[in-house]
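SEVERITY: medium
COMPONENT: batch folding queue
REPORTER: lab tech (J.R.)

DESCRIPTION
The queue accepted two submissions in a row. Attaching both inputs and their returned structure tokens so the on-call engineer can compare them side by side.

ATTACHMENT 1
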Amino acid sequence: MAAGDEETVSKQIAKIQSDLDLHRKSASPKSKTSAKAPLYKETTKKAKKQSCLRKISHFLPQAVLSKSAICQHEYGCFENVVRKALKHFLVGFFIQVMLKNLMLLAKPAKLLKNL
């Protein structure tokens, strides 16, 4: 190699080394702050609920399934009403079933008669 080539190579190496040093210095505070932030928030997302009306959507009019401009619900006002009504119906039904079963446990003779 010629002397001029060796000088340019050594200058390039020195420049690359200084760039790496600057990069390491600037990256080290970032790595400390990123270590404090929890990683699970970045990698996991809340699963989006599927529409409960997706299986019967071909029976319903489009106006019922679409969201209006002012609707703040995830899938629309109608679906929100259906979800809440179903939830409250199921809660009430299970409370009723539990109360009936508790009454049967209080009177074992009726329990044996019903079997």
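ATTACHMENT 2
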Amino acid sequence: MNQRRRSILCLIVTCTIFVLWCIGVAGQHTRLAKQVKVNSFSKRAPYLVIFLARLLITQPGFRLSSRSIIDALGQIQIYMESVLCE
């Protein structure tokens, strides 16, 4: 596989993971996320957000509001502000 094709493939994979992360973060507090949750009494999240997104998008009735997506993207800004020192 040549270098250009590998670079494009890496970009596609990165974008896919980012979209799954956004869906997972936005879908964490939905009713459907509580239904697919394993029987756990722990306060810790039972699934990584990317795996949760994969579970949620396979459910027939799963929909996210645009507000949920905007809130998920807002977490990126908070994270970046905490990491970057100016």
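NOTES FROM REPORTER
Residues 3-27 form the longest helix (25 residues).
No errors were logged for either attachment.
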